[in-house]
TrEMBL record:
ABC transporter domain boundaries: 4-229
Name of the molecule in the record: Phosphonate ABC transporter ATP-binding protein
ATP-binding keyword on record: yes
InterPro entries: AAA+_ATPase, ABC_transporter-like_ATP-bd, ABC_transporter-like_CS, ABC_transpr_LolD-like, MacB-like_ATP-bd, P-loop_NTPase
Pfam short name (any one): ABC_tran
SUPFAM superfamilies: P-loop containing nucleoside triphosphate hydrolases (SSF52540)
Protein keywords: ATP-binding, Nucleotide-binding, Transport
Length: 229
């Protein structure tokens, strides 16, 4: 991931908001990066652009050797499929679908055959220790279990990149720690992780912290080395 002078302006009525102001970022494959900063500093806007959900107003964004800043929505969607998994603070599971069906959803969009889907979903549910809840509905699960299902959904198609927006924000410390350990494990296997967090403790799992303020990168701290203690 490489951004050059990435900016995002939102215009509503007479008001113009510069949500991102010339952001330059390089994130290598296999990195685990935490993004921190006060409410309104542009974290979600940045995640939406990095995750190919939205385009910047100005600047360049190279994703896996492809210039993506000017892509149309359909092209962005195609590029996201199988390459990027999303994890949210509020889990964002579909209440009407059971655990198996929630995790299966990205594979349905990728037009993967039903037999292969079944294998892939069962494998990832096993890994997340959720096989015994495959037929349950989200509302029948604890917050920690729901987030494990959401992570299963994010990783079921083996994406190279996971974007996690405050993944522990709605969890108690025990479940939060479990989620962080899952993300760390996925990162150790080579998945790039970009995570927004307000928690210093969670940021400690990352290799690097990027601090945003008023849409600008104001500080980067490398944590590499501390883990090897
Ligand atoms: P954070 O995630 O750090 O809280 P955001 O990226 O959500 O910050 O927002 C950055 C700034 O952009 C804020 O001032 C916010 O009000 C503004 N903003 C975000 N999304 C929109 C939008 N869709 N329309 C107008 N303004 C927006
Ligand atoms: P490969 O090496 O075969 O591309 P990976 O599992 O390493 O497979 O990555 C899968 C996809 O994830 C890549 O094709 C790329 O689109 C995306 N990706 C992951 N991390 C990055 C990154 N730091 N910069 C750009 N793209 C990335």
């Amino acid at each position: 991931i490489n951004t050059v002078n990435l900016s995002k302006v939102f215009r509503t009525d007479e008001i113009e908001t510069l949500a991102l102001n010339s952001v330059n970022l390089k994130i290598n494959k296999g990195e685990f990066v935490a993004i921190m900063g006060p409410s309104g500093c542009g974290k979600s806007t940045l995640m939406n652009i990095l995750g190919l959900l939205d385009n910047p107003s100005e600047g360049q964004y190279t994703f896996d050797n492809t210039e993506v800043a000017g892509l149309k929505e359909g092209q962005r969607t195609d590029l996201r499929k199988g390459n990027i998994g999303f994890v949210f603070q509020s889990f964002n599971l579909i209440d009407e679908l059971n655990v198996f069906e929630n995790v299966e959803m990205p594979l349905v969009y990728q037009r993967i055959s039903s037999k292969t889907r079944k294998e892939m979903v069962n494998k990832v549910l096993e890994r997340m220790n959720m096989s015994h809840r495959a037929k349950h509905y989200p509302q029948q699960l604890s917050g920690g279990q729901q987030q494990r299902v959401a992570i299963a959904r994010a990783v079921v198609s083996n994406p190279g990149l996971i974007l996690a927006d405050e993944p522990t924000g709605n969890l108690d410390s025990k479940n939060g720690q479990e989620v962080m350990e899952l993300l760390t494990e996925l990162n150790r296997e080579g998945t790039t992780i970009i995570m927004v967090t307000h928690s210093i403790q969670d940021a400690g799992y990352a290799h690097r912290i990027i601090n945003l303020f008023d849409g600008k990168v104001v500080m980067e701290e490398s944590l590499v080395g501390e883990h090897s203690l």
